[in-house]
Amino acid sequence: MDFFNPNSIRARGNHHSVGVISAANLALITDNRYLPESMFIGGIIPGPKEPDFEQCDHFLCPIIEQFRRTWSPGVQLSRTADSDSNVLVEAAIILSVNDLPAARKLAGLQGHSSGLYICSVCDLQGKNSIMDTNHSRWSCCNVQRMRDAAYAWRTADTLAQRKKIFEEHGVRWSSMWLLPYWDPTRMLVVDSMHCILEGIVHYHCRHVL
């Protein structure tokens, strides 16, 4: 999932934002995998403004429902490129690749600048932990606890209860939790352009060198 300005960033004062939910078929060879004609466009989120978390999840939910069914029980096809007879095809989401704000919004996690849950992989908390490079103190988030908190948020009776759960656990409901195999600590990936080129390299060149 990503958002962009359809009128280009050159339009002064123009802040329109349109979102795209897309997927690549990893069964294709790498030369063809990311060609425009090979990409699956799951949905387009209209502007003019970027929607909040709950609005985004309404666009995401029907797509995830389809992937839940393709995983179990799967899809029975009369034939495929490799078989002339009936075959059961199973499909799954392997990775979710986004920039950091979109990743947190898609997964229903607190933002990286929230002040408490700064990471979706480890359980380091608070902005003071950002510079902690002693990885021996890092421990992975408990995915089952995250899932339990997400379902608790979903079934909460009041907005106050939902707010409390989100503040305490850093997790709220996302349709991604409909997938029995969903693990944000291993499957939620920040794309290389934002992470490396516009993140690590940018910081290193401007502040370290």
From TrEMBL:
Protein's UniProt name: Uncharacterized protein
A matching Pfam family: Transposase_21
The species this protein was found in: Gymnopus androsaceus JB14
Domain of life where this protein originates: Eukaryota
